[in-house]
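Inputs:
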Amino acid sequence: MPTITIDKDDLLELIGKEIDNKILMEKIPMMGTELESFGDEITVEIFPDRPDMLSVEGFALALQGFLNINTGLYHFKSNDSKYKAFIDEKVKKVRPDAVCAGVKDVELNDAAIKSLMQVQEKLHLTHGRNRRRVAVGVHDLDKIDFPVRYTTMPKDYKFIPLECEEEMTLDGILQKHKKGVEYKHLLEKYEEYPLWIDSKEQVLSMPPIINSEYTKVTETTKSLFIDITGYGLKYLEQALNILIMSLAIRKGKIYSVNVKDGNREYRYPGMTPKKMEIDVDYTNKVLGLDLSSNEISEFLKRMRYGIEGKNVLIPAYRADIMHKVDIVEDVAIAYGFNNFKPEIPNISTIGENDPFEEFLRIIRNLIIGFKLTEIKNYVLTNKEDLFKKMNLKEERIAEMQNALTVEYNVLRNSLIQGLMRAYSINTHYEYPQNIFEIGEVFRIENGKIKEEVNLSVGICHEKANFTECKEILNSFFKNLGIEYGIEEKERKCFIKGRAGSIMIDGKQIGYIGEIHPQILSNWNIGMPVAIFEINLNEVYEKI
Amino acid sequence: MLSLHEKKVLMALKENEEESVENTAERAGLDEVAVMRAALWLSSKSLIKIEEKTEKIVKITDEGRKLSKKLPEREILRKIEKGIFLDQMHLENGIALGWLKKRNWAGIRRIENRNFLEITGEGKNFLNKKTEDEKILEKLQKGKMSLPEIPKNVLDILKSRKAIVIKEKIKRNIILTDLGIQEIKKGIVLKEEVSQLTPEIIIKQSWKNAEFKKFNIETDVKDIHPGKKHFVNQALEYVRSIWIEMGFREMKGPIVDTQFWVFDALFQPQDHPARDMQDTFFLKYPEEGHLPRRELVKSVKNMHENGIMEGWGYKWNEDIAKKLILRTHTTSLSARTLAELSKDDIPAKFFSIGKVFRNETLDWNHLAEFYQADGIVVDENASFRQLLGYLKRYLVKMGFEKFRFRPAYFPYTEPSVEAEVFHPMKKQWVELFGAGIFRPEVVVPLLGEDIPVLAWGPGPERIIREYWNIVDLRDLYKNDLKQLRELKLFFKR
């Protein structure tokens, strides 16, 4: 999850009140943000559903309400302007949607610039899905000659990208510029690339890659033009509103832009809050509380909602309200998670273990009666262990596509390899080493994965042999009241003539044998080992 | 009470109040180790004293054994009985000649400028008689002797010929004390002593005329190892018991599952960062699984696209939902369970314990494979307060005294909550697990209507780690036999 860093003095100035450190440290985690570190700089983790708090200003706005310093809706005033933007039909095939707005007289001090850069970067990463869904460009408004247009240009079209001295072709930017290389996968497949261009044919930006040097924002910039491009107007508008909210709090005056997209016309930003009826009963039912509609309204105001009669006004910068339950959660946060009295209801239900799990518990108890130590391996393993070291022919097994380590890139289809691994790392400890594992194995049957649970028992000491292993197997089945048989069957990992299949009702459900000395050497084990492995799902069926 | 051996030792000292251990052993009919053990007990009861003396012992060397068989000067002595020119002899070295002269067994005379060797009277004397040192050597062949038994001149000869070594030996004498003498005077009755009780002794009842040997019950015994469940499984059994006690039923389901159940059914949009390649194990083979009944798939698709009031606003792709992955949480089982639930089953409570996976490089704080214990409560009247009630009960049963609930975010719950416990060592709040109420967008497609479903998913590893003070998470599954044999059992009151 994304984190933002906040200058504490700047935060307190935005909130407009001196607040004790202790209270800040206590309240921030209870507001629905996670406090990562606290000092002159505060680092908080922002949940992905609250991109509006990725800006220091948005965070301050929320905290101001939560601390009951200033509550209710933050009012935006939008000024009309003659600014016009056109969206070219050509861009629809490449990066179809765009919104924009202007802001004048912003107080761009250090803290404000830092916050603006931070919110852009974090929005790109999270809300913008790493610039694919949403990309933001911020420009010096005074450099731009309106109307502007969002269009595409051929790959050999040229402009000077930000922080560069010479013109580069669009293709050159993708191939050579640092940002171009980083994000070229978003454009590469298209014939032409998207550009914002003003009426004097000056390029503003090449979304979602880079802005132009021409409209660069500096410390002396007073007015800003914001362009946002991507997929899904909803997400673009949310991002625009978050930036506008941040700049408005920094005393910026909002100037709307008329956007003409084909034969539709929009005016951005649209900061009018959405309305939703407050459902008092639903809120109380979900939370298990008995709040009056007034109390609910008060709590909602602390979360910076507006109240208009029976309706809640949802700020335009909020991107997370999909259902009335999202409003309910905010009531709970304002009410305070510490203030809920936990209760266990008096409803009667019956507790029950899964019968197979219960069976496994019985099996485990039986096996430890043989003085065996239980081990536990990962179900993820590798073919080297499963087949090569066991001298077994490779079988079709479940394989991972993207495992980070080759050591763990397939799912095991049997357990004995895990026992062998345990023996190979415990050679310096006292013998006898008699061990067992009960665990999931994954076999392929008709192209589908079959998940089953196996039991494997291993004995290992100077005189370990087939007979002793069979004694345990024999006692195991006697205790379960199951008739079994052993049929001689060669298996590469066992000594010839000391290996067999374990059969129930004519069906093979496992195998038993003395491990071949070559296999023991493969695992660097210097002691005889005898092992059996059985399919417990099959055994379960017989009980 | 005296043991049989102690009595025997006392009896052996009856005639001589001071005796060597060897002699005592012979008289008592015990071996020396047994005598010493009994003597130590007797001395602790002040019945005897043990006196230690160091004694010098002479032992024959390999060289000595060779000499004893074949003394070089004696070999020559026979050859020179009638006299011989020195240059006619083939001597390997001068040792034999040197000793002939040293012993005054032969003399040299000059004849025609040649050295003539002839036997002396002393030499003739010893032709058929052994020297003192030869006799001692023969004796030493049979066993060691004490230093004073060997005359000084012989000792010097043997030492200079490296035929012997002198060693120090501790010699122990047992001396009766006055208390010991009294004890003997009181009369000692030797009774049969029983060490290991045998079936024979029991059946023949011979123990009636015997005494039981006293054991030193404080002596260390060797370690043995019981059969034992893996410690993680011990803890998981406990977690299971907590939910069973509260009336929860177990749910089970596949580890390898489609994205549909792990993500889509839980209202996680297909471009959600949590579904990224980097966190999730995708299967190369088999690549795809099957989707459930048609209307459920359609309903989930509709929920993603349009929501109840508002959806994610993108085109939901069935092919992505079919892809197989290793489940990243057992919440997939909760989704599967809800999809199978009928109205008559409600209210219902379920739990699951199972493995979940993260495609991460293993280090001290990260595993690719670990456990999650999910729980859900499906009840028309379930509320957030009740959710906290269940969580509180779990935390208390897990032994946490100081905990809190704070707001959190999970894509499929609203409200969402994180349970945190106060770590007394780190002096800070530590996240333990997440919980919440399933979003209506999750519940409606699965249950057909919006009924509250409380849900949580604690990972027991963190608690297991605390219980056994395991710092490195990898140590949970390293299968070190020493660790498995010696870790104490899991028990919480």
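Chain A touches chain B through 89 residues (CB under 8 Å). Flag for discussion at group meeting.
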